[in-house]
Specification:
Keywords: Signal
Low-confidence stretches: none
Structural class: mainly alpha
Organism: Brevundimonas denitrificans
Number of domains: 1
Order of helices and strands: HHHEEE
Mean pLDDT: 75
Oligomer: single chain
Helix content: 55-70%
Distance between the termini: 51 Å
Strand content: 5-15%
Shape: rod-shaped
Protein name: Outer membrane protein
C-alpha cells in the first residue's frame, strides 16, 4: 500500500518537472495538475484506508482525479496571469511572459521575434 502511494506521488513529481512548452517556458497548468493529482492520490488513499472498507485504491483514484483537476485549474489561472497581451500596429494580438518584450508569441503560439 505504501509503495503504491509513493509511486503515484513520485510519478506526479516527475511529470511536473518536465512541464515546459517548446520554448522552455514553464507550463503551470501541467505542472500544478500533476502535483495536484499526486497530492490527491496520497490524500485519497489515506482517507480510503482510514474509512476501513479496504478501498484505499479507489480513494487514491478519486483523489488523483479531483486533485488533478483542481491543480490544472489553478495552474491555468497562473499561466494566464503570467502572460501580458498586447496589440501590434496592425491590430494583431501577441503576448509576452512576465512583461519581458524579448520573449513574445503570437496567439497561435509562434514566436513573434
Amino acid at each position: 500500500m505504501n509503495k503504491a502511494i509513493i509511486a503515484i506521488a513520485g510519478a506526479g513529481l516527475l511529470v511536473s518537472a518536465c512541464a515546459t512548452d517548446e520554448y522552455g517556458n514553464p507550463n503551470q497548468t501541467v505542472r500544478q495538475g500533476a502535483i495536484g493529482a499526486g497530492i490527491g492520490a496520497v490524500a485519497g488513499a489515506i482517507i480510503g484506508n482510514n474509512v476501513g472498507d479496504g478501498n484505499a485504491g479507489r480513494g487514491a483514484a478519486i483523489g488523483a482525479v479531483v486533485g488533478g483537476v483542481a491543480g490544472a485549474v489553478r495552474g491555468s489561472q497562473q499561466d494566464r496571469a503570467n502572460q501580458q497581451r498586447y496589440r501590434d500596429s496592425q491590430n494583431r494580438y501577441y503576448y509576452c511572459y512576465d512583461g519581458r518584450q524579448d520573449e513574445c508569441y503570437w496567439e497561435n503560439g509562434q514566436r513573434r521575434y
